[in-house]
Design brief:
By secondary structure, the chain is α/β, with parallel strands linked by helices. About 35% of the residues lie in helices and about 20% in strands.
C-alpha cells in the first residue's frame, strides 16, 4: 500500500477483490437517505461477482435493524452481511474472558443484543463484572454511567465499541460515544480497549465473518475508514460522497491516504489509472498538478475522478517533501469548479 500516491489497477476493483467492506453513513446512505445511484452501483458490483459486507462503528442498532434499513433503500441485505462495532466488542470480551463471562454493559439495544448473542451474561456495572463494555445509547441513565466509571477506576477491564467523537442526528451533529469514553477516561485515569475503526477488531471481525480472501475497505472518512483499513493491512477505496472534501483530502496524513480514490461507488466498477510524476508535476487522465511556492496549481482537461487524483497526488507529494499542507485557496478555477465540489 502506497503512502505517497494512489495505486494503478488495470482491472475493475470488483474483479480484483472478492469482498467490498462498505462503511455505511456517507457511503451507502447519508442520514436516512440513500446516496445517489447506490442501489444501481451495488447491484452491478454484485453482478460482477464481488460480495458486500456492511460495516459500522454504530453500536446502537442490531445487524437485523441495519439490514432492514439497507433493504428499504433498495440495497438487499441480510443480518449476516452486517458487522457492527458492538459485535466486535462482544468478540473481544469472549476472547479475553470466555463465553458466559459476566459483563457490565452501558449502551443501547444493539450492544445488548451483541453481547447476549456472543454468549455473555449481562449484569449491572457494579455487580462484580469481569469487564465493562460500553457503546452508544442515547437513553442510558446517568447513574449507570457513573457506576461503570467507578468500576473502571477501581480496576475492572474496559472495552469500548468505538471512540467516534460525533454522530449525525436529525437535529444536527451531536456528541458520539467518544464523548462518553473521554468522560470515563478522565475520571478513571485509563483508556479502553477499542473495537471500532480505526482499531483493528471490527475490520478483522468483518474479514472473518465474510470469509474474505482479498477484501477492500471502502469508506468516506480518512481517520476511521481509511486509517482503519491500513491498520488492518487492507487496501482501501476513498469515496467523496460523505465527510471528506478538498481540504480534508489534501491534508491527509500518510496513514490516512487511500489506495484508490473515486467520487462514488461506481469506482468499484472501473479500473484505476496510475498518477505519474515528471519534473515535479503529477499527471493523470489529462490533468496535471504542480506545487509552485507552496500553492497547488492544476491544469488540463479530463474526468472528475482524475481531477481529484491529480490534486491528491500533488498535495501529498508536497506535504511529504515540505512538511506542511499545500495552499489551496485559489486551486478551484472556474472551468473545473463543478468537478471540485
Amino acid at each position: 500500500m502506497s503512502t505517497t500516491t494512489l495505486v494503478r489497477r488495470e482491472q475493475p476493483l470488483c474483479s480484483d477483490y472478492d469482498v467490498a467492506m462498505l462503511d455505511l453513513d456517507g457511503v451507502v446512505y447519508i442520514g436516512g437517505a440513500p446516496v445517489e445511484h447506490v442501489d444501481r452501483h451495488l447491484a452491478q458490483v454484485r453482478q460482477a461477482g464481488m460480495r458486500l459486507a456492511f460495516i459500522t462503528n454504530n453500536a446502537a442498532r442490531s445487524p437485523q435493524e441495519v439490514a432492514a434499513h439497507l433493504s428499504g433503500l433498495g440495497v438487499p441485505a441480510s443480518a449476516a452481511d452486517v458487522v457492527t462495532s458492538a459485535q466486535a466488542a462482544a468478540g473481544m470480551a469472549v476472547a479475553r474472558f470466555g463465553t458466559g463471562a459476566r459483563i457490565g454493559w452501558v449502551g443501547g439495544p444493539g450492544l445488548e443484543w451483541a453481547l447476549l448473542d456472543a454468549g455473555l451474561v449481562l449484569t449491572d456495572p457494579d455487580d462484580d463484572p469481569a469487564a465493562i463494555v460500553t457503546g452508544y445509547g442515547p437513553e442510558v441513565p446517568w447513574s449507570r454511567i457513573m457506576r461503570a466509571a467507578v468500576a473502571v477506576r477501581d480496576g475492572v477491564p474496559w472495552i469500548a465499541s468505538n471512540t467516534d467523537a460525533t454522530i449525525p442526528t436529525p437535529y444536527g451533529v451531536a456528541p458520539g460515544h467518544g464523548a462518553l469514553v473521554d468522560l470515563i477516561a478522565v475520571f478513571a485515569g485509563v483508556r479502553p480497549d477499542v473495537a471500532g475503526k480505526p482499531a483493528r477488531p471490527l475490520l478483522d471481525e468483518t474479514v472473518q465473518r465474510a470469509g474474505a480472501q482479498r477484501p477492500l475497505m471502502v469508506g468516506d472518512r480518512l481517520d476511521t475508514d481509511i486509517e482503519g483499513g491500513r491498520n488492518a493491512g487492507l487496501d482501501t477505496l476513498l469515496v467523496l460522497t460523505g465527510v471528506t472534501g478538498l481540504q480534508e483530502l489534501v491534508g491527509a496524513r500518510p496513514r490516512e491516504r487511500p489506495t484508490y480514490l473515486s467520487r462514488g461507488l461506481d469506482g468499484l466498477l472501473t479500473a484505476h489509472p496510475g498518477v505519474e510524476e515528471s519534473s515535479g508535476a503529477w499527471t493523470v487522465g489529462g490533468w496535471s498538478a504542480r506545487c509552485v511556492d507552496g500553492e497547488l496549481q492544476v491544469h488540463g482537461d479530463g474526468g472528475g475522478d482524475d481531477w481529484w487524483r491529480a490534486v491528491a497526488a500533488g498535495a501529498w507529494a508536497y506535504a511529504d517533501q515540505a512538511g506542511q499542507v499545500v495552499e489551496i485557496a485559489r486551486l478551484v478555477i472556474p472551468e473545473v469548479a463543478a468537478l471540485a465540489r
